Amino acid sequence: MLDETRGRRRARSLGIVIGELPTGPHNAITDVPGVSVGHETVWFGDGPLRPGSGPARTGVTVIVPHPGNLYLEKVPGAFEVINGYGKTTGSVQVDELGTIETPIALTSTLCVGRVADGLISHAIAQTPEIGITTATVNPIVGECADSFLNDMQGRHVHEEHVLRALASASTGPVPEGAVGAGTGMSCFGFKGGIGSASRQTASEFGGYTIGVLVLSNFGMRRQLVFDGVPVGRLLENDINPVPERGSIMMVVATDAPLIDRQLRRVARRAGFGLARTGSIAGNGSGDVVIAFSNHPSVRVPHYGDGWTRPIEVVAESGPDASGASIDALFAATIEATEEAIINSLFMAETVVGRDGNTREELPVERVLDLMRRYRGR
Q1: What are the pLDDT digits (tens) for 192-203?
Q2: I need a surface site. Which of 202, 211, 259, 331 has the fewest CB within 10 A?
Q3: Which among 224, 184, 205, 242 has a CA at the least distance from the CA of 54?
Q4: Where is 327: in which H helix or E strand?
């Protein structure tokens, strides 16, 4: 559970165990078989902001649903908007058709267009007939604003960074904290960024995996809750409050055979996990969930074989009419989302950005001590 490259430890390895369900082997979105994650960090310059020139503290993170050609073998997907102050791309077509046909990219707000261009170039390289003899492509990009630490006007994430992130995407442990899209993000007044977690359902409910990856950039310090403990209020007694409020992108992946309508129901439950950490989804917050299933039975071929196609999906009403199988996926999503957000805080290190602006890392030992005292042990 120790991140060798960053020297930080994840919440679970320090005794903060969220919920009851077991995790996958990496406790990350990559525990969903076939899902990979890549990062590209853009970091240069120090000192005063020179709009358009730096300093840069930003990057891009990509989530690849399966290792094949996503355009030719699309996955069912859904968007859930908890609060819509955001600049995501691709949601309209996903709502209409219920499919995702590119990797999902996360980045800085003003870089959305450039990152979308990178996804389009990647899709055309894989499928040269796009826009010539077949349809166009719908790039999926989510964003959060990193302006406190980064020169946002510089739009320093380019197509080359997207392509490098895609080329480096791995199915192994996911680097977290101030990396890729998370480089310049803040969470509850501390350094935030990338976090991930997973949960597995019991074999009687299919033994499926839910994996979540978040880009955390939201919350005011006094709101912060860890596993039911009001850590933010306890910390405010000895740490100056930071009136920070922003956004969060949550990506939910599963190998359970779910269609887009079912995925929207699952995505909605990520909001419950978000709320458990103390978020109120404030007025100026963009809180968005993107969910997909990569189960082979529900993938959608670009070129079909006939007028119909058979699919198999998770039953929402079992023999006892309880809906236990879908409930298990709901619970897994809530637990994994909550832990992914907590991991984004535990794994992020202090970053000094433009104009000397500094976002301090979470004081982990202080937090653990406060949690022990609060619980009387």
Answers
A1: 999 999 999 999
A2: 202
A3: 184
A4: helix 324-346
